[in-house]
Write a structure and sequence with these properties.
alpha/beta; Urease, subunit C, domain 1
Length: about 400
């Protein structure tokens, strides 16, 4: 993860939205004599970031939760009082597809302005059949108007909706027997995710939901270990693309994960925003051979940021990842978390021309200058029409 394959005085040749060649400027100059040139002298050029965990389908920010947390309320306290995930339900249920799609598109545009070119986008704030499908439709509509790439994920198992608090297994049945099949039939999702946590879905309920996903031809990923520990090996049969958060894991969990193809997606901006003093054990995960990705966890309650560069900074300062490791985690490893590594995450011939250009002389400046957007231009599948002015 520390080897970025840096090319000094490098050049990237793009044709028909794909990378045709990568090398030094001298090497590529002969074959690029008729090409339109983007002058990147004195700048850092990277693969576009892959934000492999976001929740962009919501109507309003959760400002009351924010104030309560400042006053000392915990995540669990807020949820028990009717805040948290459940408080976003009304806004999504009352919004139209067009309204939600506009919010998604705005978030995607802001992400691109910070260097992100590929985004995983979850549902999860509707929590009934119609609203979850509406959420996925809004992701589809927003993605169609964006030049980048969006991977849609069904997260109907984000929380137990209020109407099923007395019988959560009934809601699990609706997710398995109605929502997942409908999303699969409509080709609205590539993945199914589940929040496996105390107060949300048990390991047994989570496995039932993920088995239903596989039975309907969808791939799997899991929110796990954010607030309390769940033994990771219980998900072995599911071959999840990623396990996300992982703030509470043991050495046994890490050893098992290191022997799998599953990516550990860490979301340190959520820990930052929640005011937590502990973060996922990135250093141990990496040192023991786990593939680690970084993502924003963009959402209205616990991580209202679209900035991967900010996530890089938090990862370096609070999780002791090196700048190179953090960039790897937000590019090629993020692509692996979405199983898009053949198209995304690195500047290699044949891959999509997703490129981010930064006003910096050294890649280490990206996490160093925190809360500053240094991205001057983003190229999405060969289209260089995005600047930091968005």
């Amino acid at each position: 993860m520390r080897d970025l394959g840096i090319i000094l005085d490098g050049a990237v040749l793009v044709s028909d939205g794909r990378i045709a060649a990568v090398g030094t400027t001298d090497q590529l100059s002969k074959s690029a004599n008729r090409a339109e040139e983007i002058d990147c002298r004195g700048k850092v050029v990277l693969p576009g970031f892959v934000d492999s965990h976001t929740h962009p389908v919501f109507a309003k920010p959760r400002l009351i939760d924010f104030e309560k947390r400042i006053g000392g309320a915990t995540y669990e306290d807020i949820a028990a009082a009717g805040g948290g995930i459940v408080s976003s339900i009304r806004g999504v249920r009352e919004s139209s597809v067009e309204q939600l799609a506009q919010h998604v598109l705005h978030a995607l545009a802001e992400m691109a302005a910070h260097g992100t070119t590929t985004v995983e986008a979850k549902s999860g704030y509707g929590l009934d059949v119609d609203s979850e499908l509406k959420s996925l439709e809004s992701v589809k509509h927003g993605a169609q108007k964006w030049s980048g790439t969006v991977t849609p994920t069904l997260l109907a198992a984000h929380a137990i909706p209020p109407e099923y608090r007395g019988n959560p297994d009934q809601y699990v049945g609706i997710v398995c027997n109605e929502i997942i099949p409908a999303a699969a039939r409509g080709r609205l999702a590539d993945y199914v995710d589940v929040f496996c946590e105390q107060g949300a879905f048990s390991p047994e309920q989570s496995i039932r939901i993920l088995r239903a996903a596989i039975a309907n031809g969808l791939k799997t990923r899991v929110h796990v270990g954010q607030l309390t520990r769940t033994r990771l090996e219980v998900f072995a049969e599911l071959h999840c693309a990623s396990l996300d958060h992982l703030d509470h894991v043991t050495d046994a969990d890490i050893a098992w994960l290191a022997g799998t193809a599953t990516v550990a997606t860490l979301l340190p901006s959520a820990n930052y925003f929640l005011g937590l003093s502990t973060f996922a054990p990135a250093r141990k995960l990496i040192d023991l051979g786990v593939a680690v990705a970084l993502a924003t966890d963009y959402n209205p309650g616990t991580s209202p940021t679209i900035s991967i560069p900010f996530v890089l900074s938090v990862a370096c300062t609070h999780m002791k990842m090196s700048p190179a490791e953090a960039i790897t985690a937000a590019t090629i490893n993020g692509a692996c978390a979405l199983q898009l590594q053949n198209l995304k995450g690195s500047l290699e011939p044949g891959k999509d021309a997703d490129i981010a250009i930064f006003d910096a002389c050294d890649y280490r400046e990206l996490p160093y200058w925190f809360a500053i957007n240094r991205c001057s231009k983003t190229v999405l599948r060969g289209r260089g029409d995005v600047s930091s002015a968005v």
